Amino acid sequence: MKQHKATIEKTLYDYQLEDLNKIFNYFNEHPEGINLLYQLPTGGGKTVVFSEIARRYIEQKKKKVVVLTHRIELSSQTSRMLDGFGVHNKIINSSVKHFNDQDNYMCFVAMVETLNNRLQDDMVQMNNIGLVIIDEAHYNSFRKLFKYFSDSSILGVTATPLSSNIKLPMKDNYKKLIIGESIKSLIERNFLSKANQYNYDVGLRTLKLGINGDYTVKSSDELYSNQSMQSKLLSAYEELGKGSKTLIFNNGISTSYHVYETFKKSGYNVRHLDNKNTATERKDILEWFSNTPDAILTSVSILTTGFDEPSVETIILNRATRSLTLYFQMIGRGSRVMENKNEFTVIDLGNNAKRFGLWSEPIDWQEIFHFPDFYLENIKNDEEIERDFVYEMPQELKDEFSKSENIHFNIKEEYKKAFAKGLKSKSVLEKSIEQHALICVENSEDVFDARILAKKLKEEIAYRVRQYSYCIMNNTKNYKEWLEEDYERRLRLSISQKFSSRM
Predict the structure, then answer these.
(1) N or C: which end of the chain has fewer CB within 10 A?
(2) Dihedral sign, Cα of residue 273, residue 277, residue 279, residue 284
(3) pLDDT at 10
(4) How far apart are CA 102 and CA 90, in angstroms?
């Protein structure tokens, strides 16, 4: 037994042992039936930690341990990890109807729904359970089982101690939160890869929020399936991730199919995966992904937990989310360290980093755990994020205005000047139209060429109008649309007048 224990000690890093000791001390200092929550980032080895906790608990307390998971794949992975730690365990899955052999085991791994059904139907009676370990504890499906284990201690384990249901905060179920090593520290110590994050500004005003507090699949599909967003995605991949093993996260199946078609047409090695694929198809696709160096896998949030492919080099967030947990889970899929990999690329097409901060930035989990409402209320909304957008004219369009000395115009600065002089706010737009007309005329042979150039300024015009509407605090959709149309009409008129005066 001693020799076996020494082997186990080697598999745990110092920070894991430190956390493990904190957890045991807490359980030893408090009566049985206490609930404790433990946070450790994805890739930090949560399963390793709680497998050793299960082994020690059984050895020291002589009581049984139940490990709860929310997905069938996680049950199998957890069971294998426990076996590796010498913890003889039984999986309670849908094929287990009765529980006559429970005395042969000191540890059980169960899917929450399966165990709940068995306990509800009185098909299973669990005896001498001292500790219940809950993996991915931020999911609320586990709450229904608490009543069956009122005399047991409960250890919830998660990378993000923020409940998936805002109405059911985790502080209501757990007495204390123990914080593990930070992402930044794990990167510095080479336990996690460093994320190089790149953000593309995306207008999300058409997205709608659903009852769960996140963006609806329908509104996401409408935005991310359109040609403009598909082109942005493809060019972002070609600029930053071309040839690398790439995992793309989408919010809707329709979007993922569009992504598949877009990359397929461009000659890339791509496949699509969602929860409608059979177990055999899924196995085949994931094997292909693992063995293909330039593989691109487009999926629908199905690979956020229980999926471990260290060779992923690029993560593309082809979606926006207001879920901090999902944000961390998606990026975490690329964070595993390999012999030739200590960095990975994150391409963000949902303004997610602007909403939550960079993946490796410090985060106050204690505050989020104790005051989740305050945290959720203060997440930046899309309008706030879009106010900070800076329009950058594409180089090919800049080249068409090469005869002009200055093509830039700062609406906010001009508004401040106009305000200081007591001028009407509309004078700012008039000045902007004048500047646009001037550069169109300077770079054209005739009025027709100038008008063609003016049409190419549509995106910049929309940006300037949006900046102006923020300045005057009238940000309604109808008003901005009217302003854009009026701007374009007056720009055409100004171009005509300039050519007339030349004549």
Answers:
(1) C
(2) negative
(3) 46
(4) 8
Work out the number of other CB atoms within 10 angstroms of the CB of residue 103.
Answer: 10
Residue 69 phi, psi (nearest 5): -130, 170
Tokens read off for 396: 């090919």
In 3D, which of 354, 385, 390, 387 has the Cα closest to residue 471? Answer: 387
Locate 154 and state its tokens: 């409960």
Average pLDDT, the chain: 88
pLDDT band at 84 (very low <50, low <70, confident <90, very high): confident
Task: List beta partners, residue 111.
Answer: 69
For residues 244 and 313, is the Cβ–Cβ distance under 8 A?
Answer: yes
Per-residue tokens: 355: 């909403």
The CB-based long-range contact list for 74-78 (8 Å cut-off, 24+ gap) reads: 74/135, 74/136, 74/305, 74/306, 75/109, 75/110, 75/111, 77/47, 77/306, 78/47, 78/51, 78/109, 78/135
For residue 413, give the H/E element and its range: helix 411-421
30: DSSP letter: S
Q: What is the pLDDT of residues 252-285, one digit of tens each?
A: 999 999 999 999 999 999 999 988 888 889 889 9
Calpha distance 367→369 (Å, rounded): 5
Of 34, 38, 36, nearest to 151 by C-alpha is 34
160/225 Cα distance (integer angstroms): 30
Do 51 and 81 form a contact (C-beta atoms < 8 A)? yes
Q: How far apart are CA 38 and CA 180, in angstroms?
A: 7
Cβ 81 vs Cβ 52: under 8 Å: no
In the predicted structure, residue 359 carries a pLDDT above the cut 70 = yes
d(CA 297, CA 196): 20
Q: Which amino acid would we find at residue 295? A: A
Using one digit for the tens of pLDDT, what is the confidence trace for 437-485? 999 999 999 999 999 999 999 989 988 998 899 888 877 878 888 999 9
Find out whether 126 and 66 touch, Cβ atoms under 8 Å: yes
Torsion angle (degrees, nearest 10) of CA 170, 174, 177, 182: -40
Q: Which H, E and C letters describe 281-293, residue by residue? A: HHHHHHHHHHHCC
CA atoms within 13 A on the CB side of 259: 32
* pLDDT tens figures, 211-254: 888 899 999 999 999 998 999 999 999 999 999 999 999 999 99
Q: Which is it for strands 64-69 and 107-111: parallel, antiparallel or unpaired?
A: parallel
Closest C-alpha among 302, 213, 295, 298 to residue 256: 298
pLDDT by residue (tens digit) across 175-205? Answer: 999 999 999 999 999 999 999 999 988 888 8
User: How far, in Å, CA of 93 to CA of 265, rounded?
Assistant: 42
Query: CB-hemisphere CA count at 13 Å for 440?
Result: 29
Global pTM exceeds 0.85? no
Question: Residue 47 has which token pair?
Answer: 């399963």
